[in-house]
Known about the structure:
The protein is an alpha/beta fold. It has 10 helices and 6 strands. The longest helix is centred in the C-terminal third of the chain and has 12 residues, at 189-200.
Amino acid sequence: MSIFCLVNGSTQNPLCWKLLVPELEKHGHQTITPGLPVDEPAASGTRYAEIIAQALEDARDDVVLVGHSASGMFIPLVPCLRPIRRLVYLAALIPKPGASIREQLATDPSMLNHEWVATCRAGKDPSVDDEVAIKFLFHDCPPEVINLGLATRLGMYAEGAITEIFPLAALPVVPSSYIVCSGDRTISPDWSRRTARERLGVEAIELPGGHCPYLSRPLQLADVLIKMLD
């Protein structure tokens, strides 16, 4: 059985995986949900990758590393530090060697939903603003799950990682998958499909619904992740 290392995105803490973890573990898989250095705004992507690798220090090599949303910046750096069986970008950013995430957005605004960008630039923070979080992150969740999502919010102000040039000359040669959420209101589904093809050489796996399928449809997401092991 495999080890799924689940790395949260920029607006939640590791408890966001609470519904997905039992769906993976009931099939015999192990899960690890590392905490990230969210109190270090100047931390580089490498620093984030080191924290993830440290959480896997005692794990065997059969690790499937799943990065949600902003954590797509960090997960391709982890294979430089330890063996990884597969990288899974879950509704996630994909770094571009030779550029920063901020530069990517400036040259290709289609990466993010323009309404999401405008809302954040207006100072409305989904990590503290319930209305924004529900509209863009949890809109397809039932009420009790919305409450769980709201309770697990934690801002990740990874300014250092967002502004740094991606530190590798190329993305790692590791089997990779991309899961796109067709109703995503943050990262553009069209951008995700196109960029997964161009940078990872894969066709994105489609899930319905919004940006946080580990909350809105954990059983379906678990099924997709487990099938990747075949």
